[in-house]
Design a protein that fits this description.
The chain is an alpha/beta fold and about 575 residues long. It folds into five domains: about 60 residues; about 100 residues, 2-Layer Sandwich (Beta-Lactamase); about 55 residues, Helix Hairpins, CATH 1.10.287.130; about 160 residues, Histidine kinase-like ATPase, C-terminal domain (Heat Shock Protein 90, 2-Layer Sandwich); about 120 residues, Rossmann fold (3-Layer(aba) Sandwich), CATH 3.40.50.2300. It is about 50% helix and about 20% strand. It is built from 18 helices and 17 strands. The strands form four sheets. It has a five-stranded antiparallel β-sheet with strand order 2-1-5-4-3, sandwiched between helices. A hairpin with a 7-residue loop joins strand 11 and strand 12. Helix 7 runs antiparallel to helix 8 and helix 14 runs parallel beside helix 15. The chain is elongated, with a radius of gyration of 47 Å.
């Protein structure tokens, strides 16, 4: 019987009561009074019943229209468990089950492998104790997909306070859970980014402190020995030691600057290679020659094992030497006195088109902690701060090595059995056809001097100008030294010269404008000596990028040298700029 039928029956009863009240007028007074009283009580009861029915209808409508899933079960907790006796439409919409599919079943049909078993045990305990329960769980739809729900389960008691049913209100909170997951992810990302930023700041501070230390340390012997040399009281043996120390520490500072510049180029993607055919035995030999004094000072034996005499790659000879030099320098730095360093050159997969040259540098030094090994090629990373103080360095060398190796299409790997057990670094580079010979190098023992060559030097830094003039005069050149480009132009208009050497970064007029004016004077000045219009020119600059080299050549210089200037390099560049080995001596 539905609600409307019930209302109709009440109305029929009320109509009959009214009829009885009319008929009661014919009864004796006493009977009439009793009947009237009974009919009034019945009318009141019917009215209350109608109000209750309307409340029930309202409640049922609210349950039916609720957007939350509502389930009513029996109170039998023992197996097979409580049975579902009612579900509202929202339940079907949420789970995909029709009403007839779940009536008589237990709520376990909504549970699955990811439903929290501890939560279910807690739920059962609350229900056994007749207590409400609130919780969040994973449920499963009819199609097997999972969703998150928030449970509010309440026991229903009869007039005797006995639990007869449970009503469960379930709300789908999947969207909220997804937002919580995303929020947690964002918080983790923010936390990670903050930690990385703090680590980067610490690394920056440590790097700047180390940089200050590394730049200042060589200044002590340089400035100290310079002061002592000015006294002119040193015996000859000590004089040579002082000069060697000054040179060694100056080169150390130059290497630091070069490493920083290389790092800057790599970060900006501007690292360029001068690719030629290179026999790897040559840059290895050059690097060995460079580090041998440092090895001898610690009585470290350097052994070589070349399984092949020719391992030809397409590469930048200078950069390849830098790779090997860095690895050897590290090996010597971290190997104790009387230790051993070994360099090996071999070929892998020689019979295949993808054969590789393999350079191995191993040592008997302090080794690498296994926990640090994955980070050994990271820039600015050193095993701990004490290493920086004990062994020096900026933590750039191995990072630069990896970048240079990868720029050559190769790979590098580090191995170590642990602390105190030495380390091995292996570089692999792709070989090119063995039939292709490497580019010829000039004879190593060829030397040049510049007897009677008229050289005009332009440099606005007095000490550098004085040094360059002295160096060239020692080689027999006739030197005119000018502190500015304008002074140099005046001399070029009056006197013939064989060679122009000019700094680039100068005040008033830079080297680029100077060479442009020198070249343009050919057609507009009758007073300019004929030889000066096309005078060979060498550019000197502390800017070492490839773009600087290219610009210098494009505006009219024949050679480009980066500071600091090596004497041999300057003499050799002068000979090339002049187009001949000047008075070559072999």
């Amino acid at each position: 019987m539905n609600g409307d039928d019930f209302v109709d029956q009440i109305q029929d009863v009320q109509k009959r009561v009214a009829e009885l009240q009319e008929d009661a007028s014919q009864l004796p007074l006493q009977q009439k009074s009793r009947l009237t009283e009974s009919l009034e009580r019945l009318t009141t009861a019917l009215r209350d019943l109608q109000v209750a029915e309307e409340a029930i209808r309202l409640l049922l409508s609210a349950v039916q229209q609720s957007r939350d899933s509502i389930i009513i079960t029996t109170a039998h907790l023992n197996p097979p468990g409580p049975e579902i006796v009612y579900v509202n439409p929202a339940f079907s919409e949420m789970t995909g089950y029709d009403t007839h599919e779940v009536l008589g079943k237990t709520p376990r049909i909504l549970q699955g492998s990811d439903t929290d078993r501890n939560l279910l045990d807690d739920l059962r305990q609350h229900l056994e104790d007749g207590e409400p329960f609130h919780g969040e769980a994973i449920n499963y739809r009819k199609d097997g997909t999972e969703f998150y729900v928030e449970w509010n389960i309440t026991p229903i008691r009869n007039v005797n306070q006995q639990v007869t049913h449970f009503v469960a209100i379930q709300r789908n909170i999947s969207d909220r859970k997804q937002l919580e997951v995303e929020r947690e992810y964002l918080l983790e990302q923010e936390h990670s980014a903050r930690n990385q930023a703090e680590a980067a700041n610490r690394t920056k501070d440590e790097f700047l402190a180390t940089l200050s230390h590394e730049l200042r340390t060589p200044l002590t012997p340089i400035l100290g020995w310079s002061k002592v040399l000015q006294t002119k009281k040193l015996p000859q043996a000590k004089l040579q030691e002082a000069l060697a120390t000054i040179e060694q520490n100056a080169k150390r500072q130059a290497q630091l600057v070069d490493d920083l510049l290389d790092l800057s180029r790599i970060v900006q993607g501007k690292l360029s290679l001068d690719l030629t055919k290179v026999n790897l035995s040559e840059p290895i030999a050059a690097a060995l020659e460079t580090v041998r004094p440092a090895a001898d000072a610690k009585s470290i034996a350097i052994a070589t094992q070349f399984a092949v005499s020719d391992a030809i790659v397409l590469g930048d000879a200078g950069r390849l030497q830098q790779i090997v030099w860095n690895l050897l320098s590290n090996a010597i730095k971290f190997t104790p006195t009387s230790g051993k360093v070994k360099v090996k050159l071999s070929v892998r997969d020689a019979s295949t088109p993808h054969s590789l040259a393999e350079i191995t540098v191993c040592d008997t030094g302090k080794g690498i902690d296994p926990n640090f090994l994955p980070y050994v090629f990271d820039r600015f990373r050193q095993e701990d701060s004490s290493i920086t103080r004990q062994f020096g360095g900026l933590g750039l060398g191995l990072s630069l090595v990896r970048q240079l190796v990868e720029a050559h299409g190769g790979t590098i790997a580090a191995e170590s059995a642990g602390v105190g057990k030495g380390a091995t670094f292996t570089v692999r580079l792709p070989l090119i056809a063995q039939s292709i010979e490497p580019d010829p190098e000039p004879p190593a023992d060829l030397k040049f001097h510049l007897q009677n060559v008229r050289v005009l030097i332009v440099e606005d830094e007095p000490s550098t100008l004085q040094f360059l003039a002295f160096l060239l005069e020692q080689e027999g050149a006739i030197v005119t030294a000018m502190p500015s480009a304008s002074d140099a132009l005046e001399h070029l208009k009056r006197s013939p010269f064989d060679l122009l050497i000019s700094d680039i970064a100068m005040q008033e007029m830079d080297g680029y404008k100077l060479i442009e004016q020198v070249r343009s004077l050919d057609s507009c000045s009758d007073s300019l000596p004929d030889s000066n219009a096309k005078i060979p020119a060498i550019a000197l600059t502390a800017y070492t990028a490839q773009s600087e080299h290219d610009q210098a050549i494009s505006v009219g210089f024949q050679q480009h040298l980066a500071k600091p200037i090596e004497p041999e390099a300057l003499i050799h560049a002068a000979a090339i700029a002049l187009g001949r080995p000047v008075n070559a001596i072999t």
